[in-house]
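Exercise (ungraded).
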Amino acid sequence: MKRTMRIMLMMLLVATLAVSLFAAGKSEEAKPARKVINLWSFTDEVPKMIEKYKALHPEFDYEVKTTIIATTDGAYQPALDQALAGGGDNAPDMYCAEAAFVLKYTQGDAAHFAAPYKDLGINVDAKLKEADIAPYTVDIGTNGSGDLVGLGYQATGGAFIYRRSIAKAVWGTDDPAFVTSKVGPGWDKFFAAAEDLARKGYPIISGDGDIWHAIEGSSPQGWIVDDKLFIDPTREAFLDIAKMMLEKGYTNDTQDWTDAWFADMKDAGARKAFGFFGPAWLINYVMAGNSGGDKPGEGTYGDWAVCEPPVGFFWGGTWVLANNKSPVKEAVGKIIEWITLDSSNTGLQYYWANGTLDGPGGTKDTVASGTVMQKSDGTLPFLGGQNMFDVFVPAGAFATGKNKTQYDETINIYWRDQVRNYSAGLKTKAQAIADFKRMVADNLALDV
Amino acid sequence: MAQKGVSYAKWGYIFSIPFVVTFLIFSLYPTLYTVVIGFTDLRGLGKTAFKFLSDPFENYKLILANVTFKQSLANTAIIWVMNFIPQITLALLLTAWFTTRRFRVKAQGAFKVLIYMPNIITAATIAILFNSLFGYPKGPVNDLLIRLGILDAPTNFHLQKWTSRGVVAFIQFWMWYGNSMIVLIAGVLGIDITLFEAAEIDGANGTQIFFRITLPRLKTIVLYVLVTSMIGGLQMFDIPRLYLLGGPDNATLTSSVFIYNQAFSGSYLYNRASAASMIVFLIIVVLSVALFFIMRDKDEAKARKRERQLKRRGGAV
């Protein structure tokens, strides 16, 4: 009895193996339309959008397999690169790239994986015009041969986001126009404002990382010029700015994306921080969740406002790309078009800008399409009822992809490490710059 | 009637085929491939074509001249020593306690499990946990030290080179001392019990028994622990990489993190990464051989030598 059972089991096993082998062989032969889209992303934003797309379009019968790897610690890129290079049935059909490294995937070392949008069945030129897409998004997403391979759905021009109650305590008013004239234009006015605030016991920002994004984004040149490392004077000045701000007590000396930085968003830090530099996504996806409340009066919720920054900059943003070896290009094309180029009231960007992707009352954001921005409303209870689009739409004009390089994520890690060592007084400026150059030369084989 | 014996030998070979095939494809081939690309110009994402360099050792020369690589080797050695000395000391001490015949430690099983436990948790989790613990300007360690009055203001531990090295070494130590202890206890249990009894009858005390009987008999096991820990330590990757990405200022950059950075963090210098791995491999081989040589049983070697001499003499007669 036992023996027959065992034999039966063996036969079953062999049968399943044979069937699966046979099936595999067959699918290789006939190539029936695959109904699966492999999606790689570093947040759940795009996966959630696709859920919405599927809800809106019941006839779209593809299954979406999502792989999410966070960009913290630089883990996303190596994993995505291996998946793209490895190819095969599980290779990404659609993948997302962040501003810090998108150029690698659109114009740099990994550009050969990306499919031009026109090959996905998208009428690129007409759609770009109709949606009035922010030019920097298009520049960054265009490859060496002039084909558009990636587009973002957000516009990530940055503003200065400050605390209304602190502005009132220090200057007697929380009017955005007044605060704009206090903190800018230019860094000299910003530091004068910092001095005002410091005297009352408020650091103007939380840590050196906050001001770094503004400095990085406003520098005319990127890290690499003519295949050589180039330290733009604007960026080199960050060494002394960081040190000066630390010494004068203009910051709480936190590091961005650490617990202490998040704590400063809900007054849990050593001293109440006055503000943060950031685009609309920082407000909605980072600050709102860390404000210690979810309606005005709770935590710092509702006590914020946005004004123009001392220098223009942009920070972050997600570009959506398709794999040119994907067997499901047309389906991917439909999703990409809906996300990046559909400016109608049922396009992703309209929902995204008005915070209605998951029903009314969601988080609002600035989007790449000017057409959509014109018909959208950016009033936020988090900002005490201010319409944030008044500040963020003009801020988008400062956004440029010209000072970006494909190695930014790696180089910035080395740079920020050296700046922290210098500002803490652990090494001289010359030493910090020399060590930074050595790190870049030793690890990236770039001329310095 | 001559009966043929049944040979089961072939089954041994048949059953080991899956392992051998897997090993050849997934272990041996990649290893050999790594060796080969160290002599080529293979770099850049998604490239598979390569040609051999006119100077086959160009990558090796570049790596040996690479200041960051030398720094990473030094860090690896420092962090390994910082972790191994307390690890083997504590493991030996615990072994002595758990195996002593003078008294029975109560709830031994529970202790062993608790001590071994850190080894089960993923190193990545622990590295990230410690990063948060030592957070600045707010973090549990800072809060505690201030509340105890040891510090006046929060200290940025993540900028202190030796603190960071110490934390990485501590995590390594904390995760592995239980494992070493289990191996050592197994070794002690293998020692002939009559030796202990004889020593006791002769009036040896616990310390004497430990140093005169347990430790000498345990030499091979200690050597095993030393060599495996050294190999593991020289390949230390996940903890330093996730704790502070090899920072601050490269203080916890180990050779494996360096190799990873070469291969995957920007320029995809596969060839140089492979050259660096081969250099680390050679260092491991040399150190392991040296350890075996130092720790060899000198009496036994002498005895064998004498035996050989005797045999030769006997043959001559």
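Further reading is listed at the end of the chapter. For now, observe: The domain at 159-222+231-313+379-426 of chain A is CATH 3.40.190.10 (D-Maltodextrin-Binding Protein; domain 2). The first strand of chain A starts at residue 36 and ends at 41.
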